[in-house]
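Methods — Computational structure assignment.
A single polypeptide chain was analysed. Its primary sequence is given first, followed by the predicted tertiary structure written as structure tokens.
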Amino acid sequence: MSERYLSFPVWCREQFGKRLYRIPLDAGMTCPNRDGTLGTKGCIFCDAGGSGDFAVHYEGQQLQLDEVPYLSCRDAGERSYIFYFQAYTNTYAPIERLRFLYSAALQDPLSAGISIATRPDCMSSEVYRLLAELKKAFPDRFIWVELGLQTMHAQTAEYIRRGYPTSVFDDCVSKLHALGIDVIAHVILGLPGESDEMVYQTIDHLNAVKIDGAKLQLLHVLAGTDLAKEYQSGAFEVLCEEHYVKLVSGCIARLRKETVIHRLTGDGPGNLLIAPQWSRHKKRVLNEIRHVLKTEDIRQGCLCYDFHDD
């Protein structure tokens, strides 16, 4: 690997011979943390948009790129876009609706495949069977599942109202791998009460289950969330830029070299972001991460000793 980490664009060029671009979708679903099944407030950090503030409303229609906001490339051609079911919990609907939506996305000429953001406790036996069926029906398209782990630590998971034990995540990853489906894990860096060592333990856990991809997300405090109330009361402080750059570089060093890194920071909606304000300067942050990796001679997996494949 000539790069210091296996970035998503680099991996795309290796696998597909070109870069792929995500189209975030809102398929009108909800979440057991919002509809009363587990709770009504959602996770402590989640705003009213369910992490889909930039998403396109999707009902299975063929997408027109000129109608997609915030798209980084509109002329990449057919089969150059990932149809990313992003908002809320995207396996939390009747199975026939899921079949229709996923099939429509896989059939769209723009689509290289689909990525489904969901909770591991919302992966029923019906959903596993559906994914196996679709994988067989669309062999020239990929199907990925994105799971919001955020942390492996039970105390933090309870604080953020995640709503399931880490063992449920582990079981879900195992079942998806048995189907030949790649899994992308979301991890939040800077959660209240978590030390750097605790974050690194979460990275070790991703290594142990041999996660395929990781999104390392800086904690954003967004207006209208319960996390914002905690922050404004002085209950915790957000990471400064220097600390975050050091921490994420340490995560890269510890993450298995085979794991694709899909994200190293994040994009909080500008009209909702309360803190940290420095995160608005995404290019600068990424450049600082690259600088630390180079000056400290850090490469992905250089501190990963226990989980390398044979």
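Note: The beta strands are 21-26, 56-57, 81-85, 111-118, 142-150, 182-189, 213-218, 221-222, 260-263, 273-275.
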